[in-house]
Here is the input.
Amino acid sequence: MKKLLSKRSKQLYREPLEFVVHIKPLPNELLSSWLTRTAFAHYMKTTTFLNLYIMNRRNALVRKDLDFYNDEHFFGILYKKSKWAKEDILALSIRSEEGFLYDCNDCLVVPHQIRKPTYKRSNYGMLYCPKCLAEDKIPYWRKKWRYSYYTACPKHKIFLTDRCWGCGERIRIVKMLLAESVVYCSKCGKDLRLTSSSKVPDKYQDGLDAIKWFDAALERGYFEIGKQKVWSVLFFHIHNRLQNLMDRKEDLVLEGFDMIDEYKQLCSKLENYDSKKASPTYKAFFLNAMVYYIFQDFPNNFIKFIKKNKLIHRDFTHGLKEVPFWYEKMLEKYIPKQNKMGREITKEEVLGAIKYLRSLNKKVTQEEVAKLVGCHFTINKGFKKIYQSLNFALHN
Ligand SMILES: [Zn+2]
Ligand SMILES: [Zn+2]
Here is the structure.
């Protein structure tokens, strides 16, 4: 076995020192938070600590996404040196959510259920609730602050924020300067507990309930859809597809959903001009709430959503590599697949659909017309033939 280890990993196992102080991991704490707290307890910056105690040469670990890092040697050292149980250490890593929040089979890329820590176009990925930090007896950073669905704090009813109030720098826990706790900006040293963040308006209660709903499901391992239990990872698997499907902007019809106007206003803002960087957090908040909403009062909201938006089976599965069985079964019940060969389509129906789209000033495409007629846009040969001849006739 020894022969199999590379020179480098042998070095990793060699000299490192034993931990002197054992800092207890806190509930839902992030690995980088715990490591930084442990480093500070040893009167060291995290980089120095990792060099000395974990033999992290050339700061390789700091450059990596430590919280999504998956390396047996690295965890081996942590198990050996700290007095805590293996499962307590592993629970600090976002990897421990594999099989519950996401499914990736040793993937190297962070899955969409987790925000990447440097995703600059929308936000910096590492969000936080300044009030949670301020209330903590021992301040620490939560794993859930990196989950895509977690955009606001249900306890403090504020949106999470992603930067320092003083200098605007993103949060880099392992880069923080040595202090009594892990709450000071790595760049300017301002106390991050003092960051102010927008309040979630009372009208947005559904959005907070949505976050609680996802949290509870992740905690117990399953969602309840109607009377059926759905393994959490199999729901999170389709979460993104549903969000994309619901992100219909101006066209979305979602009766009874309280935040519909705000969602549409935000969409047009994002389209028309460069708005504030935090807007994507709000958008994620709305989309999340919408997915939650269609599964409430099941199946009524779900059926209404399908009908009012004239959706077909394929809209729900498009782009999914794997369609979970529960999802397929649910779709089959409420939105059966079209008979692809299809019934016979008449010229009048197709013409009617084209005229209808034109009257709304909408683009006439083979796909849109087929949706209205209720058949598949390329497989139904009769439809294809009629559409093409009509479209040709109308344009000439
Ligand atoms: Zn909070
Ligand atoms: Zn700062």
Summary: The two ends are 77 Å apart (CA to CA).
